[in-house]
Amino acid sequence: MLGEKINRLRKKQGLSQEELAELIGVTRQTISNWELGSTFPNPEQLKLLSKTFHISIDELLGNDIKEVLVERVSNTEKLAGIMIKILKVFGFILVGLFLIDIVALIIYASSGNLHNVESSATITCQLNEKSYQIEFGTDKYFNCDNCSNQMEEEIKKLVDFEELGNSIENIENYFITHDGSCE
Hints:
Elements: H1 2-12, H2 17-24, H3 28-36, H4 43-53, H5 57-61, H6 65-110, E1 120-127, E2 130-137, E3 142-144, H7 149-158, H8 164-177, E4 181-182
Antiparallel strand pairs: 1-2, 1-4, 2-3
């Protein structure tokens, strides 16, 4: 195999066994033995042969590293292509979810309930045949329909914006102590 390659390359360069032997620093018989496959060049002689024939030692020995490299590069390119496709799909999914969130937020905001994004409560109470609807939330939202300014201030002081359950109880007690009721 190596011997056949040396023979082919020598003839391709138009060199006789003697001429090649002179370039490498060996005898004609050594070149003949290499070409017949009975002996093999040592590493230093392989270097000189590769320089003489203008090829790499791997090519001289038949180690076709180029095919291995081309195959590895090809496999890497295929893997990169697959990863790009996966990232594109993932990106489209994220954009789609983002758009759905925006549409949902717009619909929710247009329904007029934006102040209820956080927890909120509504309680309806009666006092002196008058109805009062009181709304409040953890976002510091407060509204009291039909309340006088004084009544609104008194009720607002009873609201704990972080504990809405206690606030409902406090408001019910306020109306009960003023001879009213709550639903």
